[in-house]
Amino acid sequence: MSASDKTFINFSLSRISQSIVLASLISAPALAASDEMLSNTDFSNGTTGWWSSGAELVAKDGEACMDIKRAGSNPWDVILGQRGFGLEEGQDYAIDFVARANKDTAFTALIQHNGAPYTQYFNQVLEIGTEPKAFSFKFTQDQKSDAKTEFQFQLGAQKEAVLCFSDISVKGKSFVIVNKIPNIRLNQIGFYPKSEKIAVIRSEEQQPRVWRVKDAEGNHLLTGKTKIFGVNAASGETVHQADFSALTTKHENLVLDVDGQTSHPFKIADDIYSELKHDALAYFYQNRSGIEIKPEFVQRPNLARPAGHVPDVVSCFNKTDDKGNKWPGCDFDMDLTGGWYDAGDHGKYVVNGGISTWTLMNLYERSQFIEGASEPFADGKQPMPEAGNGVNDLLDEARWNMEFMLAMQIPEGSKVSVPLGNQQENIRSLKLTEIDASGMAFHKVADEKWTGMPLPPHKDTQKRHVGQSSTAATLNLAATAAQCARIWKDIDADFSAQCLTAANRAWQAANKRPEVYAYDNFTGSGPYGDLELADEFYWAAAELFITTGESKYLEAAKASPAFLAAPVGDETAKGDLFWQDLSSAGTLSLALVPSKLDQATRDKARAKIVATADAYSSLMTKEGYHIPYSAEQYPWGSNSNLVNRGIFLTYASDYSGDSKYMQALIHAMDYILGRNPLDQSYITGYGSNPLKNPHHRFWAHQADANSPKPAPGALSGGPNSISFSDPVAAGMKGGCVGQTCFADEIGAWTLNEITINWNAPLVWVTTVLDEHRLK
């Protein structure tokens, strides 16, 4: 699922390879033998540094407590832990802590390797009661040194109780492997001949440094001096910039040399994104549900797999949820076979499927209505089962999920139970109301509980349910189905009519039930909660008006506070396009697609898009890494802000004829592909230091050597300094800022997740860049 606002607790993630890599920002000396290896041992800084699963962790007065209401059947179903240290062979270690509970119970204290094969170096099953009890242990690491270990209290498979811990300490010599990040950071693929070419150099020097671009034979092609930027607030570094844009001839295997240090190799060529755009689109085929993924359509044979969830026939959740609310289920089944898996799990969502499908279809529509734009992925250009069927391959991929979203629409006369209005503040006693949900869309279909890892979709045995219907999902269906209807009108008239019927039904249903909000009633999926739906109403009205020309839809759009909304483009990122704010999608469509909208209003929409692009572009001078994004704290899925901003930058170039906006988009991609404080390419398979371990249950090689490494072309969510809700990120809280809060670890879902709504704009921007090439 999309990373944004996901409450993601996976009991099995204690058994996934994870580590903190932020320490690689600087070289750290080995710790002395008596040094404390844990942080925040007295909880004086709240829960910073600690992670938990299975129950909420609350810190108060130097003590942290977990109220365990569901203990589960395994010790690791409930965990309190901390990682980020190692054990050195032959060294002695001391463990101390105080524990108590509100009743007699037991738990396990352990230190283990935090990944397969999960070797345990220390393990004690302990009993406690209502009085605080101090524990003290010593042990010698008699196995090989291990830089990736974690300390855990495993509290599951015991009584439901409140357990509290204080004064937790693990002392000894931590075994640390330091990975020093290169000081020169640049796009690790390369640059277009006519594009601006900037590298960022981490340096405390107060005088400009000499740089040289050298070819494979060591010849100096261009020489200059760095520009001192100063402190980059988003990373806490002092940086210089080297601008070698004057080098415009094509070359392979170039390096940038600064003070005797050399960069990763790069090229200057016209095909920078020619392969990446295909791999980015292939992400969707490889994450299809309900179809065999065949070897002839993937980059490596081991990426092929049997079909998952065939058939995917489900009904409403009919159990008591984790908050104690009884859900009565419904008296009908839905065949929801197909669609895309949202992210690294096996959930499928209408809300996130909406923006993803819209983005792919919008890329196609751009080619129809922007003069000089090329048709993206013409039939037969993309390896996929539908290639050669006479239909554009991009549309074939979009249709795969569009048909799933259509199937999520509730049949006429069907009744379901929902919580009406915002009851999020009173989730332990929801007031469920049975409604006629005809025409609404179910929010999601997913596993009842989070599955372990690795787990290919065809091996998933969890019971699956649809989540409740929601107004947000219904409006996502209305908007995308309306867009579908006009695109397929001359391609497949029957499918176009099906989409239009569904869009109209969904619009009517949403207006009848405008306050049915998503509720996370089973734990094997994310909530995708959204309490502000004005943007979805505007977006759906705009798409329906464009397709039908009916005045009622234009009146609804104009009456909306979101009418002609566009992102502000400042440090707040307010209005940026993402699944929870879709108002600008309506504006983009009204500006692009010919309709009955008067020309003055259409021109106003285009002017707002250009103004947004101007605001985005102006931010580059404020950023040490010269990107159209300025913030000291980075949100979950920060990389998606950059690629989605690329859509506005492209349309601004289309409407103004000014290539400066494409230059700004190129700078955003430079950051994505390595010009960042971690020297990290955030795309699998691309760059000298590519993303390797995204959070994914099939591409799970880090957790299981028998699972495949990820396919190339998947975009990570990237740095996240706001939501520290996975075990890896929790260990980084307080120790990183903005652009540095990232770990390429499979268990770091708030940092390293991959999703359909991040890869869709990656397809979009790499395709237009490959078309444009700054000609």
TrEMBL record:
Catalytic reactions of this protein: Endohydrolysis of (1->4)-beta-D-glucosidic linkages in cellulose, lichenin and cereal beta-D-glucans
CDD domains assigned to the protein according to its UniProt record, in alphabetical order: E_set_Cellulase_N
Pfam families, sorted: CBM_4_9, CelD_N, Glyco_hydro_9
UniProt key word Nucleus: no
Keywords assigned by UniProt, alphabetized: Carbohydrate metabolism, Cellulose degradation, Glycosidase, Hydrolase, Polysaccharide degradation, Signal
InterPro entries membership: 6-hairpin_glycosidase_sf, 6hp_glycosidase-like_sf, Cellulase_Ig-like, CenC_carb-bd, Galactose-bd-like_sf, Glyco_hydro_9, Glyco_hydro_9_Asp/Glu_AS, Glyco_hydro_9_His_AS
Listed GO biological process terms: cellulose catabolic process
Cellulase Ig-like domain location: 182-263
Leader sequence segment: 1-32
PROSITE patterns, per database record: GH9_2, GH9_3
E.C. designation(s): 3.2.1.4
Residues annotated as catalytic: H695, D744, E753
Gene3D superfamilies given in the database record: 1.50.10.10, Galactose-binding domain-like, Immunoglobulins
Domain CBM-cenC: 36-156
Domain of life: Bacteria
Domain spans labelled Glycoside hydrolase family: 273-765
GO molecular function: cellulase activity
Family: Belongs to the glycosyl hydrolase 9 (cellulase E) family.
Name of the protein described by the UniProt record: Endoglucanase
Organism listed in the record: Agarivorans albus MKT 106
The organism's taxonomic lineage, starting at the top: Bacteria, Pseudomonadati, Pseudomonadota, Gammaproteobacteria, Alteromonadales
